[in-house]
Amino acid sequence: xxxxxxxxxVITGASSGIGEATAKLLxxxxxxxxxxxxxxxxxxxxxxxxxxxxxxxxxFQADVASYDDMQKLAGFAQEQFGRxxxxxxxxxxxxxxxxxxxxxxxxxxxxxxxVKGVLYGIAAVLPVMRAQRAGHIVNLSSVAGxxxxxxxxxxxxxxxxxxxxxxxxxxxxSPASRIRSTIVSPGLTETELLxxxxxxxxxxxxxxxxxxxxxxxAIARAIAFALNEPDDVSVNEIVxxxxxxx
Length: 246
Ligand code: NDP
Prior knowledge:
This protein has a seven-stranded parallel beta sheet with strand order 3-2-1-4-5-6-7, with helices on both faces. The model has no long low-confidence stretch (mean pLDDT 98). The chain contains seven helices and seven strands. The chain is α/β, with parallel strands linked by helices. The longest helix is centred in the middle third of the chain and has 29 residues, at 104-132. The chain binds NADPH dihydro-nicotinamide-adenine-dinucleotide phosphate. Residues 12-13, 15-19, 37-39, 42, 63-65, 90-94, 113, 140, 142, 186, 188-189, 191-193, 213, 216 line the site of NADPH dihydro-nicotinamide-adenine-dinucleotide phosphate (NDP). One of its GO terms (molecular function) is oxidoreductase activity, acting on the CH-OH group of donors, NAD or NADP as acceptor. This is SDR family oxidoreductase.
């Protein structure tokens, strides 16, 4: 039996890419998965696929940038399964562009989803996990959370922030409440993430990277590794890059 077997795992951004792969892999390993995202139809399809495969899954429409939605998501997970053992704060957007294009709405969206979304996720589950005196929060950063490139200033800022938040959470909660926290930082991964780029020049640049990323299941396996370590082992940081890229 794996550590995630029969555990309740809430996954944001579960309607595509890394979130979808993580939900399917963890459900296959016996976890009870709670899928969250905005696109309800996609969530339902994935939920059905997991159930047909013999797994346990429920889904809930939530915008991570809404504090209220995240509180409701945590309530729904508890209603369905009685507890929350883990949260994968995976939802994210990357409308990259040079700062000079002044795409202020896109900056706001990245900060709302990538930073506030992670904080609201933590706010929704922390009281539950503290009461349980156990829990695990996995936060998705990025290789862009370690280095900045032209067009990635704001996205990188959000992913640096995710690492800071996750490390702060670890220092505060790990010894006191036995709540583990893990930062998972993917390199280029084949998902829909680049679709959120609005800047035509940036889009043209990133189109050259098509097909060079790794499978979202590579990241799902890293997340599953951290969750499956025994409760007294806290895996704090994992970086996963395509072998063929620098
Ligand atoms: P996808 O675009 O495939 O998935 C993003 C997910 O986030 C979708 O399920 C989307 O669902 C959800 N999402 C976006 N905005 C919101 C919102 N406001 N509320 C709730 N859910 C939202 O990309 P990835 O799978 O690649 O991205 C997953 C994570 O991995 C992100 O945090 C990303 O930054 C990170 N990452 C990805 C890399 C890559 O190369 N792909 C590299 C490094 C990090 P919906 O639209 O239905 O709400």
